[in-house]
Amino acid sequence: MQGKVFVIGLGLIGGSIALAIKKEHPEATVIGFDARLEEMKMAKAMMVVDGYVENIKGGAAGADLIILATPVLVTEKLVRQLLQMELKENVIVTDTGSTKESIMAQAVQFKEKGIVFIGGHPMAGSHKSGVTAAKPTLFENAFYLLAPYDKRSKMKTEELERWLKGTRANFITVSPEEHDEMVAIISHFPHVVAASLVHLVKDADAEYPLLKRLAAGGFRDITRIASSSPQMWADISIGNRENLIALLDRWTENLQKVKRALEESKYDDLFRFYAEAKQYRDRLPISGSGAIPSFYDLFVDIPDIPGVVSEITNKLAEKGISITNIRILETREDVYGVLRISFRSEKDRDNALKLLKEETPHEVYIQ
Ligand SMILES: NC(=O)C1=CN([C@@H]2O[C@H](COP(=O)(O)OP(=O)(O)OC[C@H]3O[C@@H](n4cnc5c(N)ncnc54)[C@H](O)[C@@H]3O)[C@@H](O)[C@H]2O)C=CC1
Ligand SMILES: O=C(O)C(=O)Cc1ccc(O)cc1
């Protein structure tokens, strides 16, 4: 598709969408703006955008597609600014915010100006921020929720999907209300819980110096999302605060039941609590298309011998098995460390497991 695309907010999400658009539509011009000059320079140097502008007005003028990829409270503010600007008649304005109701409440004013706004939320990401973490494949197979607000914006949804085709995401239309209720449950509230679990450990840190080292494995897995951007999550929490407050009440009730079962030593109640959760969790789809992408991790106990890590990565490279992340977790006294290797798919992880078991002397396992 030809035309001018203007991306505001050149971080992880704005950068990844810009890359996906450039890949699919090389004939389009992608211009960026970010509040941070370094981010714009980096985006240009990484060829995430063709160029950048010094203010929003300059980029918005003449744009065929405007994408707001800033923290949600900033997005609300920028929508108000865009409402004051002269935009092309046929422009599509969209956003990538993790909340939709409060943004759409502002954006609905575009209707009076005859401008189409389609709320958007690519349901994949990372705890990493910034353009250096951007990649065109970030949204592959993920859901991309779209919230058009009227008949005209519904009609333009197809055009927006064509612009975003390079994301290889699965587009689904939802209302802003159902959007915010659903993502509160599966994404926003888990972030509150993850951060609060980390606070529990942090508060006990001084008393138990060993705690940090023991807090590996499962604890690291379920608190991974607590390493996300504080500004992004404070914005989301305010943006979706009513749903979060309601969930906090339900969660508290839930925990009260656990507390009663513990106080009364009700083994069967506790068993049921875990069994029902396991049964539901085991039936969740395992593809990487949920809000929180699946990670296919493999663990290798590695001794303190130079070259072990490269021995392992070379073996994987020889067989063409690509890895998405690698990290040494120092968790146990009896081994130098545990190598955690992440793969894009279950198949890659299983092939790597077989290969490393057959061709290295190390203990290789899936947790
Ligand atoms: N990180 C994730 O996993 C996901 C994030 N989102 C949403 O996408 C949006 C962007 O998130 P990320 O890219 O992860 O954040 P990020 O922190 O990587 O990027 C945000 C960018 O916005 C810029 N910015 C802040 N205020 C600005 C302003 N007034 N004008 C212009 N630029 C400004 C920042 O400098 C930064 O470069 C947020 O609304 C977030 O809720 C949606 C899906 C996944
Ligand atoms: O990486 C994770 O686990 C995430 O939580 C990613 C994420 C963050 C925000 C969204 O609105 C959607 C997905």
What's the short version?
The protein has helices at residues 12-24, 37-45, 56-60, 72-83, 101-107, 151-163, 176-204, 211-214, 217-222, 230-239, 241-263, 267-282, 308-318, 346-359, and strands at 4-8, 29-33, 51-52, 65-68, 92-95, 116-122, 143-148, 170-173, 296-302, 323-329, 337-343, 364-365.
Could you name the CATH class of the largest domain? Alpha Beta
Work out the number of β strands.
12
* Helical fraction: 40-55%
- What would the average pLDDT be, to the nearest integer? 92
Biggest sheet descriptor: 8 strands, mixed
Using only C-alpha atoms, the radius of gyration works out to 23 Å
Number of domains: 3
Shape assignment:
globular
Bound molecules: 1,4-dihydronicotinamide adenine dinucleotide, 3-(4-hydroxy-phenyl)pyruvic acid
For the record, what is the CATH homologous superfamily label of the largest domain? NAD(P)-binding Rossmann-like Domain
List unreliable stretches of 5+ residues: 288-294
Q: Which architecture of the largest domain per CATH?
A: 3-Layer(aba) Sandwich
User: Helix count, per DSSP?
Assistant: 14
What's the helix-strand series? EHEHEHEHEHEEHEHHHHHHEHEEHE
CATH topology call of the largest domain: Rossmann fold
- How would you classify the helix and strand content by structural class? alpha/beta
Terminal CA distance? 45 Å
The neighbouring-strand order within the major sheet is: 3-2-1-4-5-6-7-8
Strand content: 15-25%
